[in-house]
Amino acid sequence: MTGEGDQRSTIHHPAHKKYNLGLIGFPLGHSLSPQLHHAALKAMGLQGEYRLYPIPPLPEGLTALHTLLDRLQAGDIQGLNVTIPHKQNVLPRLIHTSPTVAAVGAANTLFLRENELFGENTDIPGFLSDLEDLKPFSSSIALVLGAGGAARAAVYAMLSAGWQVILAARRIEQARELAASLQTALHPSLKPISHTIPLESASLTNLLNSINIGLIVNTTPVGMFPHPNASPWQSGVPFPPQAAVYDMIYNPGETMLLKQARSAGLKVKNGLGMLVEQAALALELWTGLPVPRKAMWDAVLPKLEDAHAA
């Protein structure tokens, strides 16, 4: 597996009358990816199908995972997205990866380049693009909640964009491990994570009393259905008065965290824009064509609004 410069060259398939695309992950019952991609393909005037491939975690799903990657290698499938729990599991099969994938240790977009499997990560530019809507920020210091795979992508993205990052996690050991592993993966010109703290009331209070936090990013699953009334923010801890809050969760559209932050007068945003943008960037890699984001938004917003109303 090799890195290949910071490039996002598109992959053209002019001979294909129909694009066979899909998503690997588990579980996938509530995925919005088919709606996003089918709407975009239709708006682009392209024939194609985007299927869900629910593959259980390893070792149970190992054979099915390799079978699907064999189909991509053979040209039967033109592109695959990858989500939990397989963003790391696909790496051994990739001949080439982008520097982003190498640094984060996760690929979410796969395709053939010169008959060899290539892995990219569109989550990171998708996240950074979506953050633009929250500008301006009161400071360039961000507090990231969580220390799992989503946190790793968010922290790498923010450090690469010049943010100073503080990591808060319930398992402080996991946060320290993430900080240490990212430090070895980052370009020497980038600052490492400034420090890690436990995700608990006392630590947050001490932090907020001493540092001007400009942005809070939730990368944990706390607040997702079926537990929409849960929040990762510690009870009794006031929000930084000038901060913006970004929650990577998009279903429900307004999590308890975002409700709390909005009530405190903060700017808030959910992760739907990141979902749309990472999907659009993947489809551009697969087709070599510009993707109409509006068609994607129109396909998923009503569904989330209906679910919220229910």
Keywords:
single chain, alpha/beta, six-stranded parallel β-sheet, 19% strand
Write the layout of secondary structure elements.
Layout lengths: L1 E2 L15 E7 L7 H12 L3 E7 L7 H13 L4 E4 L13 E2 L1 H6 L4 E5 L2 E5 L2 H9 L9 E5 L3 H12 L3 E6 L2 H14 L9 E4 L2 H10 L4 E4 L25 E4 L8 H8 L3 E3 L2 H16 L5 H17 L1
Parallel strand pairs: 1-5, 2-3, 2-4, 5-7, 8-9, 8-11, 9-10, 11-12, 12-13
Antiparallel strand pairs: 4-6, 6-7
Helix pairs in contact: 1-9, 1-10, 4-5, 4-9
Task: Give a brief outline of the structure.
This protein is an alpha/beta fold and 310 residues long.
Structure description:
The chain is α/β, with parallel strands linked by helices and 310 residues long. The chain is 38% helix and 19% strand. The protein has helices spanning 33-44, 62-74, 99-104, 123-131, 149-160, 172-185, 201-210, 256-263, 272-287, 293-309, and strands at 2-3, 19-25, 48-54, 79-82, 96-97, 109-113, 116-120, 141-145, 164-169, 195-198, 215-218, 244-247, 267-269. The strands form 2 sheets. The chain has a 7-stranded mixed beta sheet, with helices on both faces. The longest helix is centred in the C-terminal third of the chain and has 17 residues, at 293-309. It is globular. The model is unreliable at 4-10 (pLDDT under 50).
